[in-house]
Amino acid sequence: MLGVNYHVNFRHDRLRSKGDVHHVSDFSKNNSHDKISSFSVSQETILTHQKLEPFLESMNRPAYSVWTYYELYQDLSQDQKSHRLKLLQTVQSHLGWDALAVTYWPVFSPIHQDSLSRRHFFISFMNRINPVYIFCFGAKAFHVLFPDKRFHYGKWMIDQLSLIVLPDIESLLPDNRILKNFVWNVLKKYTPDNY
User: If 0-12 CB within 10 Å is exposed, 13-18 middle and 19+ buried, where does residue 129 land?
Assistant: First the structure.
């Protein structure tokens, strides 16, 4: 657990990745980067007034990376870990990424019904967590953040944050070795040397 006075500005003290995700797969050059425009509501206002469920409190902290997928809110709110969350935590463990390297954050919570408020929710907390990279698993999570874009794996930009789009977690299960190897190789390229 992080101490009260702990603060690392990961996004501004960028650590170099060990490669670029564009080398892993053939991605479309057009529309491969996108930036969501600034919102009219101040992000600080959202942070100040957002009441968090207890299971999200410990995840709302600085981290090198954020991992997200569409069902994450539901999975975090359950007493037992889902097969999706177990898989990601196993990958994280095998990569050797500790608690400072990863936090999980849902792309939305159930109180956010429209796409704009869902993006507000996610981006406002990214500014507090301040990750170097966001790993987004699956088309459904991707479309919450980019509702008008065509889904494809690769590196995207969202509000000046690097977002790496990966396959849906369900497609990795029960044991899709090809996609698991793809995800593993992409994540290894972004393993921080130190943090």
Answer: buried
